[in-house]
């Protein structure tokens, strides 16, 4: 990531030769340099409501699990978005502004993240996460959900692939996986605890958390950081500061399960699919062969970080909408061989 321009100090007044403050030698006014935006404003939180239409809680029957979702759009297929570990549903906020013009979008806070609350926030096993997603879809849409395009980033991408592989979602019409590949993910697991422990753990304010996420390279889009980061931290009364909402360091036992066998599950999914990557070095052998055989579309997005949907939200949204158009995914889906279709009601 290119370093952000540092703030430079400047005088509060404009000086010129011979004419005094603010005046040219011939009495002309020089253009006034806009004041540098104070850090407290530059990194101040932005409200989600300019991007999503509403937020709501989904209460799962016969449990104490409540999942927070952000929704937008009124017609078309449902773009169901799953964020990465440590992120939240607001990771898709900037992209939602464009997607909602032609489709519906739902972005949920996964277990242990954002504003969701569950019986066990530390159970991030792949089976539990898949069950959560299917429970939210069923609670929101009943037994006959509309056409659903699953979109998942990083850990959420793994969850999306596993949900698709179960072949229990009758209206699944497509799959978009964002910057996660089995080979690279598995190789990085041995370094994950160190990476998590080395990141900044405590923030005196939400503004400082936003600033850290941008200057530290987690996100490259300041506006997206101002929307999404506040939902990834919470105030700790005992420490009198903000801490990370997701306790990822305590979930190591589940990490391998997210990614093991991911490439084959992705390749065998019978729906149209895209693998959206920030670099070709993230392709493993199985996916390289699958891509050459035309089993999926690969899209490379350069000059971006890991969170493609946040760093270049318009490009991400266009990719999603083009995928829907190219595969003719309507409000009620398309016929996909190999998937169980909902029973048609008798007239």
Q: Can you characterise this structure?
A:
With 347 residues, the chain is α/β, with parallel strands linked by helices. It has one domain: 3-Layer(aba) Sandwich (Rossmann fold), CATH 3.40.50. Helix content is 33%, strand content 16%. It contains twelve helices and eleven strands. The chain has helices at residues 39-42, 93-99, 126-141, 155-166, 182-198, 206-215, 222-228, 252-259, 262-268, 285-292, 308-311, 313-326; strands at 54-59, 66-72, 78-82, 104-108, 148-153, 172-178, 202-203, 233-236, 241-244, 273-277, 297-300. The strands form two sheets. Strands 1-2-4-3-5-6-10-11 form an eight-stranded mixed sheet. The chain has a three-stranded antiparallel sheet with strand order 7-9-8. Helix 2 (93-99) packs across helix 12 (313-326), helix 3 (126-141) crosses helix 4 and helix 4 packs across helix 9 (262-268). Residues 1-31 and 335-347 have low confidence and may be disordered.
Summarize this structure briefly.
This protein is an alpha/beta fold and 347 residues long. 33% of the residues lie in helices and 16% in strands.
Layout of SSEs?
Blueprint: H1 39-42, E1 54-59, E2 66-72, E3 78-82, H2 93-99, E4 104-108, H3 126-141, E5 148-153, H4 155-166, E6 172-178, H5 182-198, E7 202-203, H6 206-215, H7 222-228, E8 233-236, E9 241-244, H8 252-259, H9 262-268, E10 273-277, H10 285-292, E11 297-300, H11 308-311, H12 313-326
Parallel strand pairs: 3-4, 3-5, 5-6, 6-10, 10-11
Antiparallel strand pairs: 1-2, 2-4, 7-9, 8-9
Helix pairs in contact: 2-12, 3-4, 4-9, 5-8
